[in-house]
Amino acid sequence: MSKYLVNKFLFTIDRDPDLTERYRSDPRGTVTWWEAERASLILNCYDRERSTWLSFTDEEREALARHDYVALFRLGAHNFLTLTLFIALFERDYAEPLGFQREYATRLAGFSLPYPDIST
Amino acid sequence: MATVAAVIATTHHPFYYRASTSAGADRPTFADEWVAKIEAFRQTLTRARPDVLVMVGSDHFHQLWLDNMPQFLVGKAPFYDANFHNEEREFGLPKMLLRGHEDLSGYLLRQGLDAGFDLAFSNELRIDHSITCPIITLRPQADLPIVPVYTNIFAPPLPQPKRFVALGRTIRELVESWPGQERVAIIGTGHLSLELGGPRQFGPHGPDPEFDRKAVEWIASGDLESALAQVSLESLWEPGNATHGFMDFMLMMGVAGENAKADYVDSLDLFHTMEAYFTWYPNGVDSA
What we know:
Chain A is mostly helical and about 120 residues long. Helix content of chain A is about 55%, strand content about 0%.
């Protein structure tokens, strides 16, 4: 389980508008590229001082590649990071204000307390 | 010594800026009532004639990240840029630049460390909507120097609620012992019951109106005993998965003091979360 890395993906894709658009249009390709090129960058270090041990589990990689926010919730990705990025990806496709956010809630309706653990 | 001119605790709703500035068909039906409440609330700070604002909030994974996460952090810089790309994108928040008050920041850091809080610090801090929302609502001219104080209500493991209360008490004592002549307002923002990224998000009102009712009563009456008895890191998941932001309200209850009745209390039941506004004048205030 690498919740930290899933969160790092959501965080770094969300903060860069070009990467947000790239992830929207090519989720699987973006996940593959990011895991190979970006996953091991330590955000506050010179880029040659990389981590050497980070990778997604198959389940995490597939959830990200499928834009599957229900699976991300189940896996314990941070709820705020997932919500913020997915609003950026899909809110534009809904005519009603908050239409995407309400569908998101409905799709998570099968979860009850306690929710999956988000601690890292 | 400095004077605590006002203690203010408020929710920080990032949609206020857009709701209050929109017009015509884009203006939500609740905007006029919301603006009226905010303008009345703003008067409670204006009347206090503050010179400096100590601003308590929580970074929402903007600058602070899981590779290096402080629990409590004080900004110490001459300026603070404010608001991030995703806040502009999602909420329409403007980019801002606020002045800092380095002397008071330095005093809170030195004295806070000596009082038993191992505070982190930042000399280059970009602040987010947890602090800019109350600037927009309470001091839209953004003309006063600030001291930002960030808490971790977001990335477990979190400090215990009693630690937030204790930090609030310490901030109050430190501001009162600061050898400046300024009038200091201490302003903090948190949440009542709130769900984000979960099945109870964006409902017709907050996810737990009963928690909200109790919470408003605790804050308005300064009932720290009940709040501390009934709130734990575990229990805060129940009213909604983002309700740990209530601990910033508990910090502000620590600033206001045990059993300190708020001089001003208002709330607004909005879709998705309840807004709540509280002001205390520990040293009185000129009549309106």
